[in-house]
Design brief:
wza like fold, 2 domains, three-stranded antiparallel β-sheet, alpha+beta, elongated
Length: about 190
């Protein structure tokens, strides 16, 4: 693939990302470590706080104690806090709002023009991640790209062939990345 065609392809993918075409339909946002949440209990001025989701995925909130928040939606977390608080305040109405989504990060490393860490607040697939990293260099082995994904203690490597995806083939390999995924371009 020549450099000009590659840059045009990357620019198109980046434009689609900016336009919001990469948004996952219907999937609620999952809270991640590093996110900042605004938690409030209606009519209880003492029970309003901005909380940071710790690296272990937990938060602490008055009367509710320590809770696991990572992986839950804001609605699920509001329900969990509400259930704990209702023991002390029976008519408690809890709201949780995402104030800053600092936890969604992917990494692009190897033979790309701008390797590094990239924050995202909407769904990003492999092609879009490579575009965010400025595209591949002329010496990249675009047929041997891997996505490293950690699930608990287990790590897996998923194959991605940029050339196939560019030609409209094997599009199922152009997966939506999850927070913490690393795209390796050899």
């Amino acid at each position: 693939m020549n450099t000009r065609a590659h840059l045009v392809c990357c620019a198109l993918v980046l434009a689609a990302l900016i336009a919001g075409n990469a948004r996952a339909e219907g999937a609620p946002y999952q809270i991640q470590p590093g996110d900042v949440l605004q938690v409030a209990v209606w009519k209880e001025t003492e029970l309003q706080a901005e909380v940071l989701v710790r690296s272990d995925g937990g938060i602490s909130f008055p009367l509710a104690g320590d809770l696991h928040a990572a992986g839950a939606s804001v609605a699920q977390l509001a329900d969990t806090i509400g259930e704990r608080i209702k023991k002390l305040i029976p008519d408690a109405i809890v709201t949780v709002a995402l104030k800053a989504s600092n936890g969604n990060r992917i990494y692009v490393v190897g033979k790309v023009n701008r390797p590094g860490e990239y924050a995202f607040n909407r769904a990003v697939d492999v092609m879009q991640a490579i575009a965010l990293a400025g595209g591949t260099t002329p010496y990249a082995a675009v047929g041997e790209i891997r996505i490293l994904r950690r699930e608990g203690e287990r790590q897996s490597a998923l194959r991605f062939d940029y050339t196939d995806a560019e030609r409209g083939k094997a599009l199922e390999t152009n997966i939506v990345l999850r927070s913490g995924d690393t795209v390796v371009v050899p």
